[in-house]
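User: quick one - fold this with FE2/S2 (inorganic) cluster bound?
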Amino acid sequence: MSEVKTTAASSCASSGEFVPKIVMFCCNWCSYAGADGAGVSRFQQPSNVRVVRVMCSSRVDPVHIYTAFLEGADAVLITGCHIGDCHYVNGNDKTLVKYKFIKSMLNEMGMEDDRLMLRWISASEGQQFAEFVTEMVEKVKALGPSPLRKDGVV
Amino acid sequence: MSAPENPAPAGAPPAGKPPEKKPPAPSTVGDVLKGSDIQVGGKYIGWSVRDEVRKEGGSGGLVTSILAGALEKGLVEHVVVLKKSSQYEAVPVLTSDVEDVYASAGSMHMLISNPTKYLRQFQNDATIALAVKPCDMRGIREQQKRNMIDLDKIFTIGLNCGGTMMPYKIRKVTEEVYGVNPDDVRAEEIEKGKLILETTDGEHHAQSIDELEEEDNGRRENCRYCVVKIATNADLACGNWGVMPDYAGKGTFVEVMTEKGAEFLRNAIDGGYAELKVASEPAAEARGKVNSIMLKMSAKTKEEVFVPMQSQTMTDLKKELENCIGCGACRTVCPPCACGTEAKCTAFNDPVDNYDISLFHMIRFLHLMDSCVGCGQCSDVCPADIPLARLYRKFANPMQDELNYVTGMDDRTPPFFEIKLEEVQ
Ligand code: FES
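Assistant: Sure. Structure tokens for the protein plus FE2/S2 (inorganic) cluster:
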């Protein structure tokens, strides 16, 4: 965690341009392996993402998402197994319900749509993983810092 | 705030009266009913047999007599009654003394408390009967869905509600607008869109509720956009909407919603507490008409309040919440909130974090998206005067509209917990 922070902070300081901070929750069985796959296959992707491994995407509680935003994340990404593939029967169905609520709430708060994203990525989809991350970093760069981030937080 | 051009009733229970019919149709058909005539889904007009209850109680005292009958015949062990400490305040009290029930007769529009949380303390040990506003019953049902209140042990009489008023504001206008000493007020009633105060010298003072609301002194804001006016989610739905002039002030319209409601009504008739007649077709129509007028007004206010809020930014929201002192009173009174002392919203909320919007509020906004009943108590109790009810509704409205979920009105699982297993295969 600490070394990631230093890279982000230093790159921000050196160039002066906005470097988005993105928190990504990956399900242990699919997307985390997908992230691994992306690394092993050496797909290029930006380094703005901090991956948090969870056993199932349904472990991601609204509290986690809100804390990430309040602590200064510019976007939060949730990834999990494809619907029907969840290793705990219907965990990702629950994720979907929660996601719908949180998304609607953040929109009402005046947050941009792209700041919270849910994507199903399986263990073999290393390339999709890298593409998703690249795409999100570009989008968040265009959006600028999150309105929930406290002033002065780097 | 809103000034409906419509001369039709505004405010809480106006006496139902079809404007153009002359001579007005009778409220009832047929003779006084026997207990066995009462059916679920039936619509009746009833009144108390006791003279003094009829005199003291609003609209014939039917509700009081059903409660008294249930208590004396042992259908319930306790009744929750309202004990007035003044004309402006009342507290819910649990009693098994029938005299307390009789003493509580009479209408009251300045009652802002919702008994849901109060009820939660007792319901596991006793059977309780009580009269509820629609939002009270919605709270009770939400608690029941979360296994906190056992509906089998509770008997509820729903009362029509067009809105309640803030006691301190009415006290203020009594002095300033009515020009009456607030302590001289003996009774209050709402009729034809006017709030009528009766003073100890027997004089009546009336003011239009619309005019009071222009200065935000009438009904509470959340009542003005509330979408449930008839408590069809209770065992019995009572009120004076639909009572024609021949029974005005002398009878209460009652719709039997559940088998339990029918049982209590039969008990009141057989025990010699109340008399009922079948409500006539025009009476039932008039009731529906009052309801739809009220709902139309609510829809209008809802637009007036929430459409401008759509353009609110995060900065505006932060500003609204900036005075929060973190007392947690909004959570304590919240009827659908079922967590108890240890809850997600408090356990992870650390004031030291010093976030612009605390985790407490973030989590509560989310939790109430599907379960807010719009009772407005959060705004009432907030020591920092944050318009919380409006904020909770801002998040809840789009979600509840989208899901077509009217909180507390049916037995549907709260959508946040609703997972569709079929989709898994
Ligand atoms: S195990 Fe991957 S989403 Fe549940």
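One thing worth noting: The first strand of chain B starts at residue 28 and ends at 29.
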